[in-house]
Specification:
By secondary structure, the chain is of the alpha+beta class. The protein is built from five helices and four strands; from the N terminus they run ααββαββαα. A four-stranded mixed beta sheet has the order 2-1-4-3. Helix 4 runs antiparallel to helix 5. The protein is elongated. The model has no long low-confidence stretch (mean pLDDT 82). This is CxC1-like cysteine cluster associated with KDZ transposases domain-containing protein.
Length: 133
């Protein structure tokens, strides 16, 4: 991960952020990718994707010129394995989980509510008061 996969994802992630207005715009997601036609033998992967709203099964064709992690980042997903992942998680879902488990690590309703309010505030949903009854 640290020496080859993550460094190779920096530029695709930056391009993804530009294309989606810092991840606030629509994602150009395809549920099925076509083989690239290169000379390398491409491998077909069936991957379960975890989104905030649903689960989805997508098919990727992976080869040396189009590795799976880069294809996932282009679709707003992060793979759970560096080479042939079977699971990918939406970047927004990872952001919510990171805020919940690492920033507000207390296991109570206040931490959950604070994390959810902060996450929704970043998407433009602002609550008028701290208490909404």
């Amino acid at each position: 991960w640290n020496t080859s996969v993550l460094p190779s994802l920096v530029h695709p992630y930056m391009a993804f952020c530009v294309a989606t207005n810092s991840r606030h715009g629509p994602v150009q997601s395809t549920t099925e990718a076509m083989p690239c036609g290169c000379r390398d033998h491409s491998v077909q992967l069936e991957v379960i994707c975890v989104y905030l709203k649903c689960l989805d099964l997508i098919i990727l064709f992976v080869c040396t010129c189009r590795p799976a992690p880069q294809q996932f980042i282009q679709q707003g997903l992060f793979p759970c394995a560096p080479v042939f992942p079977k699971l990918a998680i939406e970047l927004d879902m990872l952001e919510l989980a990171a805020g919940l488990f690492f920033v507000n690590a207390l296991p109570n309703e206040t931490a959950w509510a604070a994390t959810l309010m902060e996450f929704l505030n970043t998407w433009g949903y602002v609550f008028a008061t701290g208490v909404s009854i």
